[in-house]
Amino acid sequence: MKVGDLGLIGLGVMGANLALNFERNGYVVAVYNRKEGEGQDVVSRFMKENGKNKNFIPAATIGELVDKVSRPRKIVLMVTAGDPVDELVDQLLPHLSLGDIVIDGGNSDFRDTDRRVRFMESRGIWFVGCGISGGAEGALNGPSIMPGGSVEAWPFIKDMLQSIAAKLEDGSPCCRWIGSGGSGHFVKMVHNGIEYGDMQLIAEMYAILKQALGLGNDEISRLFELWNHGDLNSYLIEITASILRYKEKSGEYLVDKIRDVARQKGTGRWCIEVALNEGEPLTLITEAVYARMLSALPEIRREAASCYPDNITEKWHDTDFSVDMARDALYVSKMISYAQGFSLLQRASSHYGWHLDCASIAYIWQNGCIIRSAFLRKIVSAYKKDPFLGNLLFDDYFKNTVISLQNGWRTLISRGLFSGIPLPCMTAGLTYFDGLRTENSTANLIQAQRDFFGAHTYERTDADSGVFFHTDWKNF
């Protein structure tokens, strides 16, 4: 009887493509789907479409799936995050043995993963929360993989995961061990937050090029293609160029027919929530999430548009100069976004004791994932030089780039705002930068106000740190 090298539960698009990826790389995969879809047996359909002359083993029950996998068993879950994962864990447990491994490849909340790691380890089972980025295409052809949890599982799953991961030019896999607990899913969550920021920054640049400079879709597409051959080289810039030039049979641009409502699945909100809890200013990514929320209010926006006239009084005429500024502003804004994202990684690493390797994380994001870009090499280099770098903006490359480009960055943002173009992420990035470099801020006044109405006390500049004072402000 054929025995599987691993079992995979969940044959949706991501799960099915991941199963195909494993099989293509030499693994025998036992497959099971916990529910039937649209009146058809999902496993039977998968086998009919993909099973001919392939190393797949269908299973009708969870028990049958587990029995058909060699020990230590490696079971990959590709199901919706939340309760479905807990339900599957409960159903799997009676069939598992000491030392078996369960891998959650969905977009689970890292706190849930941390809980599951502890729960499963208490029963002698290793649990891995595995962030997988790259969408359906990545799952099939090679995603970026971020495994974390029970480190005891890593020797048994390392070759398996690295074989299906995306590869860099030198053949290195975009999969490295992240850390303990829920660290793998945490890193994937931050990846998704950065993805939100990247997408919104590109959308804001699209607004400037289209509304202020008056460029057409083809012109903007060619511009993005040009930028994709320089510092801004990335998957998202590449696909944006393709999207902008795509025409329907009618000859009309498809992008112009798409409703301006951007939806979200929740990982961006999780990222903001965690940043707030950690006290980390994730301002640019937060504005990206809020921008999607605002886009989801078309009726309110329509009413507001009827109340207030269009503020764009004229097109910008110095196109060449403005296009150069636009490129530079997008690049610097991207730097700010990643600086905030990696600061959150460092803060959480310290809080949870994960000992995250930021250079390694940037390394495995260089291919396979949605935010893959040439820019990540700069981040790898920065953290290799200084693993304890306080902020990416302190690295020499980042510092020199921001200094040399900041005048154009400021000019573009100010002109855009004066023209009435909403630039929530760009302005948030610039404000963060200015706040970060302000040695003596106005927070002294805020703390005095807090002491005035709430007796919250304050520290003095002429006294030791940690010594607190209170003033009766009404008696002076």
TrEMBL record:
Keyword Aminoacyl-tRNA synthetase: no
Entry binding sites for substrate: N107, S133, G134, G135, H191, N192, Y196, K265, R292, R450, H456
Record bears the keyword S-adenosyl-L-methionine: no
Name of the protein: 6-phosphogluconate dehydrogenase, decarboxylating
BP GO terms, sorted: D-gluconate metabolic process; pentose-phosphate shunt
SMART domains attached to this UniProt entry: 6PGD (SM01350)
Limits of the 6-phosphogluconate dehydrogenase C-terminal domain: 184-474
Enzyme Commission code(s) on record: 1.1.1.44
Database matches in NCBIfam families: gnd (TIGR00873), PRK09287.1 (NF006765)
Lineage, opening ranks: Bacteria, Pseudomonadati, Bacteroidota, Bacteroidia, Bacteroidales
Function: Catalyzes the oxidative decarboxylation of 6-phosphogluconate to ribulose 5-phosphate and CO(2), with concomitant reduction of NADP to NADPH.
Record's signal peptide: none
Subunit comment: Homodimer.
Reactions accelerated catalytically: 6-phospho-D-gluconate + NADP(+) = D-ribulose 5-phosphate + CO2 + NADPH
Active site per the UniProt annotation: K188 (proton acceptor), E195 (proton donor)
Family (UniProt): Belongs to the 6-phosphogluconate dehydrogenase family.
UniProt GO molecular function: NADP binding; phosphogluconate dehydrogenase (decarboxylating) activity
Pathway(s): Carbohydrate degradation; pentose phosphate pathway; D-ribulose 5-phosphate from D-glucose 6-phosphate (oxidative stage): step 3/3
SUPFAM superfamilies: 6-phosphogluconate dehydrogenase C-terminal domain-like, NAD(P)-binding Rossmann-fold domains
Keywords recorded for this protein, A-Z: Gluconate utilization, NADP, Oxidoreductase, Pentose shunt
Taxonomic source organism: Coprobacter fastidiosus NSB1 = JCM 33896
